[in-house]
Amino acid sequence: MAEKNIVLLGATGSIGESTLKVARGHPERVKLVGIAANSRYEELASIAREFGVKEVALFDRKAAAAARTSGLFPEGTRIHEGPEGLVHLATLDSANLVVMAVVGTLGLHPALAAIRAKKTLALASKEILVLAGKFVMAEAVRLQVPIVPLDSEHNAIFQCLHAEPHRHVDRLILTASGGQFRDATLEQMRLVTPAQALKHPNWNMGPKITVDSSTMANKGLELIEARWLFDLPQERIDIVVHPQSIIHSMVQFIDGSILAQLSPPSMTFAIQHCIFYPDRAVGVVPTLDFSQVMRLDIRPPNYEKFPCLQLARNASSTAGIAPAIFNAANEIAVAAFLKDKIPFLGIPSIIEQTLESIPAREPTDLDDVLAADAEARIKATESIGALALTA
Ligand code: NDP
Ligand code: MG
């Protein structure tokens, strides 16, 4: 048995690809025992063949049926399907680490199942914590299962916090690239097209998070994610723009000292840290070269141009169901923007309207949060309809 037996949910995505790169670089220490995707079974089959994976899952049942008759998977591969297929993979006996990199919140139940099965969770899917951080963190604490943050900013903070007690921490400083419209005027932002929003200057990521970076909703989601992972209120989490994406985030301690984690903008650094934590291994891509002149700029973000930042701060202070509403409305608004149904600046408007339309309350349990999520999706869809009519 290898030292790290990994289940990778979201294997065909951008985080999935970087995780495979790390696995490829450490064949003696890392074994892939399960992989899942939504529907792209041909890509999943090619990963199964390369890594000899015998347990696979496709969320989409039609894709699973097509996969079974495709002849593309190695002999003896078990092809699971639907939400229960993801849960089955997340709890495989042979796995000791689950990398959760499914876009959106559909990974919530598999993530909880992995925690209950005592698998270390390397968490990329930030939306899960924004939706239900209170319940996911409580379960991890109750069962003493480590959640290792894979999102680069949170991974950086996690590394800076190594062995530091909570009382030593004054503030967290999240860095943001500022996205592709960091230097655009509000006038230019009104006219942004999906094709423009899908091009990130520093990172090569999936479409949803690329749009989230362009509105800075991504940093808003990360603020809420940090609130749950590190148990600090939003007032003690700063956001700064750092266009080079080399300082991945920082921690300011009570004595005023600040620690930062630096590496090139490749997710392999954070992923590899999660996989080997608390150990380390040789990196799979070259690190920074300080023999070359390098600039590291830092500046405050523009809250006027990026209203998603303040909306996320408000949602985080309101706590209760507000972060879940923020997340659901954002997801619906991004999908509508990508289908040309609303303008770019419609995304923060839809989030704001949805937050205003649902009274804040403290969720009683996970089902209550999921009900708020469903209600927010309906309200956001209605607001999109209204916005489209007035446009
Ligand atoms: P991508 O869009 O590139 O990939 C998404 C992956 O999720 C694909 O493998 C897709 O499968 C799979 N998927 C989608 N829906 C389901 C489902 N219902 N069941 C099973 N699998 C599903 O996304 P990213 O890799 O960019 O992002 C993944 C997560 O990681 C997001 O939550 C994002 O916020 C987070 N993250 C990403 C970073 C990045 O650099 N990309 C950085 C930090 C965090 P299929 O191919 O079949 O559609
Ligand atoms: Mg990030």
CATH class categorisation of the largest domain: Mainly Alpha
Q: What is the CATH third-level topology name of the largest domain?
A: Rna Polymerase Sigma Factor, Chain: A
Let me know the largest β-sheet.
7 strands, parallel
Could you state the CATH homologous superfamily of the largest domain? RNA polymerase sigma factor, region 2, helix turn helix motif
Number of separate structural domains: 2
Question: Which descriptors would you attach to this protein?
Answer:
391 residues; alpha/beta; Rossmann fold; 11 strands; binds NADPH dihydro-nicotinamide-adenine-dinucleotide phosphate; binds magnesium ion
Summarize the structure in words.
By secondary structure, the chain is α/β, with parallel strands linked by helices. The protein folds into two domains: 4-125, 3-Layer(aba) Sandwich (Rossmann fold), CATH 3.40.50; 157-260 and 298-390, Rna Polymerase Sigma Factor, Chain: A (Orthogonal Bundle). Helix content is 47%, strand content 15%. It is built from 16 helices and eleven strands. Helix 2 links the parallel strand 2 (30-37) and strand 3. The mean pLDDT is 96. NADPH dihydro-nicotinamide-adenine-dinucleotide phosphate binds next to helix 1, strand 2, helix 6 and helix 10.
Can I get a quick summary?
The protein has 391 residues and is of the alpha/beta class. 47% of the residues lie in helices and 15% in strands.
